[in-house]
Specification:
It contains 4 helices and 2 strands. With 111 residues, it is mainly alpha-helical. The chain has a domain at 16-88. It has a two-stranded antiparallel ribbon with strand order 1-2. 3% of the residues are buried.
């Protein structure tokens, strides 16, 4: 008797939710939780709802626009690569591989 197994074809694909890719979903979730806590703290401290609500709504819309812009600009791994590249000291950075090719004597790897 032959068994039928279903193959999940999306195993190596990144998680995407409404246009947000990978870690940006977590960034948005953490930001929204922070805004909820900020709203509660400001409201409990006695600030008027007419002050707190526009502040939280403007910060929330800024959060949404920023996270979506970062997601579309950098993609799944691009933000990490961007910060990694910025962390390299200037005197170590190379714009081309010509320096390393010259060290090998300009020969191909095969011969």
């Amino acid at each position: 008797m032959a068994s039928v197994y279903r193959i999940n074809k999306g195993v190596s694909k990144p998680i995407v939710f409404k246009g947000l890719k990978a870690q940006y979903i977590a960034y948005l979730a953490v930001g929204l939780v922070f805004l909820l806590v900020l709203f509660a703290a400001l409201y409990i401290s006695g600030l008027s709802l007419f002050v707190v609500l526009p502040l939280i709504l403007s910060l929330g819309s800024g959060l949404f626009f920023t996270v979506f812009r970062l997601s579309h600009r950098f993609g799944e791994h691009g933000l990490g690569k961007y910060f990694a590249k910025r962390g390299i000291p200037r005197f170590i950075r190379f714009s081309s591989r010509r320096v390393f090719i010259a060290l090998k004597g300009g020969r191909d790897e095969r011969g």
